[in-house]
Amino acid sequence: MNELILTQDLVFVDQNEIYTDSLIVARVFEKSHARVLKDIRNLIDDLDGITSEVQLDLANYIDFQGKERPKYNLCRDALTLLVMAYRTKKAMEIKLAYIKAFNDMANQLGYFAKYQDLMLFKDKAEKNASQCGYGLNEWKHLKPKIEEEQKFLESKIQPDWIDQLDKKKIH
To answer: Distance (Å, rounded) from C-alpha 153 to C-alpha 64?
Structure first.
């Protein structure tokens, strides 16, 4: 594979779920979007009547001409089913990159949840410390541990997620 494929170029988070979409699949597998849409519709037909947790959500995007066009958002399992038939060496490399991207994003979400919990705990501990002398003494011991964990988690998650928390005033 000549081009480096980055996690953030392959997957995205929507309502705490990890997805890719048909536009991204078309780009990285070097297929026309129309062909990928056809492959997805065939997959939907193949899944008809089968109970499944596979998410293939029809969505829209605005193309370069300003027209609304269809696309599909795909969960990890939907992507896996879709690209199983793509059999070239490059396709295998891309499939492995997608696996890594989904796993990396899942790790990011896990770290982010821990970070949110830590920031809530930190906020409560700070408030407690300001309310009484005992809390202040306890805070002296907790603060370095919390700040160390905070720095670690901040190194593991995407900076724009931290910015979202700042906007919600969790700190």
So the answer is: 38
3-state SS assignment for residue 56: strand
Give the torsion sign (CA, 65, 66, 72, 75).
positive
For residue 149, give the H/E element and its range: helix 133-156
Work out the pLDDT band at 8, boundaries 50, 70, 90: low
The answer to whether 128 touches 138, Cβ cutoff 8 Å, is yes
CA 96 to CA 105: how far, in whole Å?
14
Per residue in 52-67, pLDDT (tens digit) is 788 889 999 999 999 9
Any idea which residue has 């919990």 for tokens?
117
Q: In one letter, which amino acid is 104?
A: D
Whole-structure pTM value: 0.60
Average pLDDT over residues 73-83: 89
Tell me how far apart the alpha carbons of residues 148 and 160 are, in angstroms, rounded to a whole number: 20
Whole-number Å distance between alpha carbons of 112 and 162: 8
Give me the mean pLDDT over the 34-57 stretch.
89
Domain parsing of the chain, residue ranges = 7-106, 107-168
CB 118 within 8 A of CB 94: no
